[in-house]
């Protein structure tokens, strides 16, 4: 199934993965996942459940969840009872939204998010 994979300090990429827990663990480099549904669209945000408690790099801040994501994460579609391939429209939408990598800096006990725009645009 096609999903949008987002890694720290990289542009999102469309990848074709097997729809299995083992594969999810592999691409997220973890042993426990969490799926959240912060958007109106039929899309799931799949992350490392313990990511915030690891040494992984911060990836992106998700305002709808009011928290950052550490490490890799992916966005997939939703089927009747399982994850599904992300539609082309949603791939375009989320690729554009997460195109610019973000750096996270701790200053005065607060976390600042800096967009690292390299001037490129998604295809």
Automatic annotation (TrEMBL):
Domain DUF3846: 1-98
Lineage: superkingdom: Bacteria
InterPro entries: DUF3846
Pfam families: DUF3846 (PF12957)
UniProt protein name: DUF3846 domain-containing protein
Organism the protein comes from: Faecalibacterium intestinale
């Amino acid at each position: 199934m096609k999903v949008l994979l987002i890694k720290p300090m990289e542009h999102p990429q469309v990848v074709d993965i097997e729809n299995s827990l083992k594969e999810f663990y592999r691409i997220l480099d973890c042993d426990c996942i969490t799926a959240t549904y912060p958007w109106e669209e039929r899309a799931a945000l799949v992350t490392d459940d313990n990511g915030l408690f690891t040494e992984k790099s911060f990836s992106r801040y998700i305002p709808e969840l009011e928290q950052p994501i550490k490490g890799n994460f992916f966005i997939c579609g939703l089927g009747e009872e399982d994850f599904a391939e992300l539609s082309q429209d949603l791939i375009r939408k989320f690729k554009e939204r997460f195109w610019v990598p973000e750096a996270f800096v701790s200053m005065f006990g607060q976390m600042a998010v800096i967009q690292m725009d390299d001037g490129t645009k998604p295809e």
